[in-house]
Amino acid sequence: WLPTLHVAVTGAAGQIAYSLLPRIANGEMLGEDQPIVLHLLEVPQALSKLEGVVMELQDCAFPLVQGIVATDDLRKGFADVSVALLVGAKPRSQGMERKDLLSSNANIFAEQGKALNEVAANDLRVFVVGNPANTNALICAANAPRFNPERFMSMTRLDQNRTQYMLAEKAGCKIPEVDRVIVWGNHSSTQYPDITHARIKGESARKVINDEKWIREVMIPKVQQRGAEVIKARGASSAASAAAAVVDHMRDYWHGAGDRWCSVGIPSDGTYGIDEGLWYSVPVMCPGGHYRRILNLPIEEFSASMMEKSRKELVEERDAVRHLIPK
Ligand code: NAX
Q: Which strands sit side by side in the sheet containing 36-41, from one edge to the other?
């Protein structure tokens, strides 16, 4: 067996974590030969609920789990962690302005960044799920200067998976026969699910689908609004699918994804006209333990206008929380 890794999950008593934790614990994410210590973080009000989650994890008798730390103390929770999955966030309450939501979450992620900076392991990787995920990742990285910002990622894999499913359904093919789907921008309704470069059984997906109207008027808005559609139907936001997307992304990132493209929010390097340092979702390749941006893709006018909308939104988000970005 490999040396034990410490893995932190925040929001550990929440609904995504409830689907996610057993999958991490049984080795689906980091490998079936990777022993782990789980570090579960929650707010004080949720600690008793978290106790129940811990009991259930114990009762699963997962062979890989070497220990469980359950706490509301960031420095204890993040001590020695190599992987931090930041799932917990403050939800929008009634009457709350978007700006207030941004700033209360930015405070949380600034504090988490500082704590990670002090106590996490040198090989730390951070994956932010809690919304607004892209800007939370930016704030967290800015407050953790010990680590290369490239180690902080935000999740758009769920949006990629949603797009991939819709394409496979439309084309009547198997999910793995669809590849090179891209999600650009923010994990919000301004995201741009782009199938310009996608392939179905190795052929241009656009040619196979041969229905631009469906792509622009059905597929794109449906992916953008899928989260809201799930809430309407289920009375709660996506949880099992979000957990599946975390496992998919981290497994690909950790072990490598071969020649498959993955979309993930990462600090922009200024390419594709995106301001440097904005956490913007782009396509990457994962060779194992890091990622490589896919550069020089031709961008059509329609795509450029969609990407620009999301860029503008992310600039606004960043400007709203600028006070929490250390100089
Ligand atoms: P829940 O409300 O079920 O759980 C969130 C948990 O986080 C709660 O138990 C809460 O006590 C805890 N929490 C809040 N602040 C915390 C803090 N400072 N430290 C530790 N724990 C804290 O929400 P859930 O459905 O699990 O969703 C979690 C987050 O994921 C939300 O922000 C949600 O918007 C976001 N999502 C992001 C997605 C993405 O693709 N990036 C998709 C799914 C999901 O909507």
A: 65-71, 36-41, 5-10, 83-86, 125-128, 152-155, 261-267, 279-285, 292-293
